[in-house]
């Protein structure tokens, strides 16, 4: 794939998505989907569009993000890697992480900030060209990407044309089911 954005959204079935989500949750020791009752969750699939024999690429929307709810299922193109390789840049580790509604770009001028999905708990990251990984609050958000690039310094991003649908659907689903926090499960 040489283009920034695939021509189609991911064509993953709900059953396959739930199988992948629960397989990662088992590895994490996290509760299986729906074990505690109705749940809205987000699944991230690293390298969804890539040939499994090749490395996942950066700077393109070659990953998939999926919103799964008791009565909802939708797929989106996404990017779960930094846009570039650079010493020290963070890459979110596979796992199950907590996210909530918040503001992206707090270090930017107010006019450049917007509502997005921010860490609601610590995450584990690996850093380019640094042997150690780290766990903590790093501002690894889920937010709108760019038109000409994925606009990620380690965040999970969606194409501009799909961001509003993802954001409003996730917010609506969480409100319908009384959730303030969503489990985001990232797997490869």
Structure, described:
By secondary structure, this protein is of the alpha+beta class. 17% of the residues lie in helices and 32% in strands. The chain contains two helices and eleven strands, in the order H-E-E-E-E-E-E-E-E-E-E-H-E. It has helices at 14-28, 160-176, and strands at residues 41-45, 63-69, 72-78, 90-92, 95-104, 114-119, 123-127, 133-136, 142-144, 156-158, 181-187. It has a six-stranded mixed beta sheet. The longest helix has 17 residues, at 160-176. The protein is globular. The two termini are 18 Å apart. The model has no long low-confidence stretch (mean pLDDT 92).
Largest β sheet strand count, sense and barrel closure? 6 strands, mixed
Query: How much beta, percentage-wise?
Result: 25-35%
**Roughly how many Å is the radius of gyration?**
15 Å
Q: Which class of secondary structure composition applies to the elements?
A: alpha+beta
| Fraction of residues in H or I helices | 10-25%
Low-confidence segments, ≥5 residues, pLDDT <50?
A: none
Order of helices and strands: HEEEEEEEEEEHE
End-to-end distance, in Å? 18 Å
- Name the overall outline: globular
The whole-number mean of residue pLDDT values reads 92
Widest sheet: strand ordering: 3-2-1-11-5-6
Helical segment tally? Answer: 2
The total beta strand count reads: 11
């Amino acid at each position: 794939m040489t283009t920034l954005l695939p021509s189609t959204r991911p064509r993953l079935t709900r059953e396959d998505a739930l199988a992948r989500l629960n397989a990662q949750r088992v590895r994490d020791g996290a509760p299986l989907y729906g074990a505690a009752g109705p749940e809205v969750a987000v699944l991230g699939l690293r390298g969804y569009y890539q040939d499994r024999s090749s490395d996942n690429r950066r700077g393109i929307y070659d990953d998939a993000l999926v919103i799964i709810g008791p009565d909802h299922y939708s797929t989106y193109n996404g990017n779960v890697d930094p846009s570039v390789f650079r010493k020290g840049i963070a890459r979110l580790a596979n796992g199950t992480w907590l996210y909530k509604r918040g503001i992206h770009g707090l270090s930017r001028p107010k006019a450049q900030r917007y509502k997005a999905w921010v860490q609601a708990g610590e995450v584990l990251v690996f850093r380019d060209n640094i042997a150690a990984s780290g766990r903590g609050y790093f501002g690894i958000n889920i937010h709108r990407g760019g038109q000409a690039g994925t606009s990620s310094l380690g965040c999970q991003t969606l194409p501009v044309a799909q961001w509003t649908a993802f954001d409003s659907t996730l917010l609506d689903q969480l409100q319908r089911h009384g959730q303030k926090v969503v489990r985001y499960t990232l797997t490869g």
